[in-house]
């Protein structure tokens, strides 16, 4: 059984273009997401899945030059991009992470994988934002569940949110899958925002990394830091997550 992590990312963000390659401590932000994920004890391989657009070239060239796995596929049909990546890298259990989560925590990833495997789920997601801080988002699903959703989507003409959002069909149709939610302890049930969609989000992330100067700072250390430095945690407090 191969556990494959696919991190989706692109340069063409609407609210903060090029955010993936913005520099933190002399390294592009995307490398923090990749490197932290790669320290998971259970993930066998990590791939960044991006689009075939020319605007991705600087990111792809940098990552390939630094020996990261990169797959390029469909821009709008992200579901197809995932299926094509899985077909190439042959994953059995798929981990989905987005590239705008530079504090993704391998300990949380491994806890979610364990929860998924011990309960024989087909799909599990971290319960963000209800019971977990946004930015520690992880989803785990079987290859079979992914292929089932893809087959359904192929009968939908034109654009569809199910093609753009890989797992949307799974959690909109829990009666068709064995679905679980991974909830955090009270420690993680706080109204912080640790993903990067805007300049305010990026500023908060940058300040945290500049404080710790450690690419592998833990989620607990980050949350404790925000608890003690409200002036930093409030930098992006007014930012609203885009709705699916």
UniProtKB/TrEMBL annotation:
One of its GO terms (cellular component) is cytosol. InterPro entries: Cytidylyl_trans, Nucleotide-diphossugar_trans. Gene3D superfamilies: Spore Coat Polysaccharide Biosynthesis Protein SpsA, Chain A. This is Spore coat polysaccharide biosynthesis protein SpsF. It comes from Mobilisporobacter senegalensis.
């Amino acid at each position: 059984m191969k556990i494959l992590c696919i991190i989706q990312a692109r340069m063409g963000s609407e609210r903060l273009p090029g955010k993936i390659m913005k520099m933190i401590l002399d390294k592009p932000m995307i490398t923090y997401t990749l490197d932290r994920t790669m320290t998971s004890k259970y993930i066998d391989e990590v791939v960044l899945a991006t689009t075939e657009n020319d605007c991705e070239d600087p990111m792809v060239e940098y990552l390939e030059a630094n020996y990261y796995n990169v797959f390029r596929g469909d821009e709008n049909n992200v579901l197809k991009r995932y299926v094509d990546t899985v077909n190439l890298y042959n994953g059995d259990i798929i981990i989905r992470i987005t590239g705008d989560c530079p504090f993704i925590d391998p300990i949380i990833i491994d806890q979610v994988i364990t929860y998924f495997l011990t309960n024989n789920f087909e799909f599990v997601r971290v319960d963000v934002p209800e019971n977990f801080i946004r930015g520690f988002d992880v989803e785990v699903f079987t290859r079979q569940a992914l292929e089932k959703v893809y087959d359904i989507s192929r009968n939908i003409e034109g654009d569809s949110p199910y093609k753009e959002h890989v797992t949307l069909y799974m959690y909109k149709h829990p009666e068709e899958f064995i679905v679980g939610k991974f909830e955090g302890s009270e420690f993680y049930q706080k109204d912080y925002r640790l993903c990067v969609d805007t300049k305010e989000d990026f500023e908060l992330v940058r300040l945290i990394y500049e404080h710790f100067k450690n690419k592998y700072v833990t989620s607990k250390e980050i949350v404790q830091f925000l608890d003690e430095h409200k002036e930093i945690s409030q930098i992006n407090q007014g930012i609203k997550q885009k709705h699916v």
